[in-house]
Amino acid sequence: MILDESKQDTKLPAILNAAIRLFVENGVASTTIRDIAKAAKVAEGTLYRHYDSKEELARDILQTNLATFSDFLDRGARTKPNLAGRLEGIARAFAEAYEENQDVARFILFSHAAEMGRLPKSMRLPRHVVLDILKEAVAARELPASADLDLLQAMIIGACSRLLLAKAYGEVKGDLREKAPEMGRRLARLVEGR
Questions:
Q1: In this structure, what DSSP letter does residue 122 have?
Q2: Sign of the dihedral defined by the CA atoms of residues 12, 13, 14, 16, in that order
């Protein structure tokens, strides 16, 4: 969980961790402020000092972690100079993010669709990172200028997200980081039309 350093020594980390776990296990709608406070071992009033509602808490968790993931994704994609390498970096970033903190990854996967319309329009999302990588590939003539970049980014994000969902539901076994090179190769074939 990403947290401002000034809040590290408060009750907020326990609240956020409890909320994420409960939101993943039960969903936001079925989780109450009382449930979160009990799991975090704090009074309900403590929770209300930080957030007006569980929906505000859920939105803050999503925004903070989605923004952090977008930055992580961008750094991971830029470890290689070409499109194929960058696609492997994207696959690796998705895999690492999931394996390093499954509760946060699952929360983002399960809740982002309902909250997308409420996120700030200026917020840099994973789709923007992938679009930038694809635009650079067009500029470098790795992709044709006629390529439908919105379609390609949706296919890339969709494939990576579905892999995480498959892992969450037990359909894919093993550490996803070990599968990242193969995923990167398959994304390159998909994007390049091979």
A1: T
A2: positive
